[in-house]
Amino acid sequence: MPDHATALNAQNLAEVGSRVPVPGYDRSAVTAGVVHFGVGGFHRAHQAMYLDRLLSKDVEAAKDYGICGVGVLPGDARMRDTMASQDCLYTLVLKHPDGSLEPRIVGSIVEYLFAPDDPEAVVEKLAAPTTRIVSLTVTEGGYNLDDITGEFVTDTPAVAADAAAGSDAGKLTTVFGLVVEALVRRRERGLEPFTVMSCDNLQGNGHLARTAFAAFADLREEALGEWVREHVHFPNSMVDRITPATTGDDVALVEREFGIVDAWPVVCEPFTQWALEDSFGAGRPPLEEVGVQVVPDVEPYELMKLRLLNASHQALAYFGRLLDHELVDGAATDPDLKPFVRAYMDAEATPTLAPVPGVDLDEYKDTLEERFGNPHVRDTTARLAAESSDRIPKWLVPVVRANLAAGRDVHRSAAVVASWARYAEGVDEHGESITVVDRRRDRVMAAAQRQLGDDPLAFLRDRELFGDLVDDARFTDAYLDALRGLHDDGARATLRRLR
């Protein structure tokens, strides 16, 4: 344990480097060729880490792909301040299953802009000739797409205001307005468009990004939307690394174990994966040199991850909380929940998947169980249960639809949806309150309350979330059976009956 702690910044990097690995490359020689929206824990544990690895290999081309982070939301002001005080450096700590810690200072983020401070500066950064890729981790709900129709929602106030603002960058507040205005300026200046690279957990995330940005461009000018569709590249990707929210304990751990004062370190599991479609218009870094799977078709990897890992996380989240598990590893190793989740993976998720090149699905599922059960990551069921209305329709409902179409079993998927409905009632089995975090919180909680009356299908009647599932007796029979069990017998007895 170090005898004193050192503040993390560029001036102190040599001293910090006597304790943990630090960037060995000259950060002043790195150009920000990537502009990233949504600099949170996952981005810093994943994409920024891969680019840091590449820069550390002293690959000459890598120097053109440092990262300029951008925050758009008011809450991003904290990241702005942290990045400013630490010269965009941060500590990444891998927590291994045996309890060992693997720290590293990551230096691939070389600049950070907070759009509310100066939208014009963000647009000009995007429009600069050096910018080749605009990447996104703006959450599953950040693409402003209708869950059922898949169409861009044009009448949200922020989108409508940005469309009306047009080229007046000072009035722009959304990622859509900022990015599209930058594309307009690049076109006017004779610069090729940058690539827009989504790194969010969505099937066909590149296709969805194209839909969203082109539809916003349509609002400004129909011909502009067509130009975006024709000329801008939107590669699909699959990203994977379990990254819990940073806690005060994590900040204290970094100071205690490594003698580093870091206002916002990142902790995560050791496993990481990135499958990326090779579709870039303005060049890309040689990411395959640091373990990224650059492939012609990402879809098999996407579906594998979304339907096995992400949907299984939803199974762990609500049942886990109802079983009094605060931490995911406790839920993942629970003697009744663990076999239920594995049965979902084997019997309902796997039959919907095509073969995945280079992946043994049974081994992948075994690895998922080990990852979920890592006791040192300390991920929470509350984090997994947040923003459910953006997640269940995208991760689990497609599994349900595929199995219904094929005449296969859906009773475990139905039970997961029922566990969300029970969780959304806001009270657990001991009468303790549950804090529901969801942008549609009021709506889903109101529906959950109505199911306690004379309409047990009230939760499923939200067609924006579930489409026509409420009309299919094969699903509703299984859903009602699980929901009755949760109300009458509790989560544990229901799981024992369902698996």
Explain what this protein looks like in three dimensions.
The chain folds into 2 domains: 6-295, NAD(P)-binding Rossmann-like Domain (Rossmann fold, 3-Layer(aba) Sandwich); 299-498, N-(1-d-carboxylethyl)-l-norvaline Dehydrogenase, domain 2 (Orthogonal Bundle), CATH 1.10.1040.10. Helices cover 45% and strands 11% of the residues. It has helices at residues 13-16, 41-45, 47-56, 77-85, 119-127, 157-165, 175-188, 205-220, 222-231, 248-258, 299-322, 328-332, 337-349, 361-372, 381-385, 388-395, 397-406, 411-423, 441-450, 463-466, 473-488, 491-498; strands at residues 6-7, 32-37, 66-71, 90-95, 101-106, 109-114, 133-136, 195-198, 237-240, 260-261, 266-268, 273-277, 293-295. The protein has a 5-stranded parallel sheet with strand order 6-3-2-7-8, sandwiched between helices. Strands 5-4-11 form a 3-stranded mixed sheet, sandwiched between helices. Strands 9-12-13 form a 3-stranded mixed sheet, with helices on one face. The N and C termini lie far apart (47 Å).
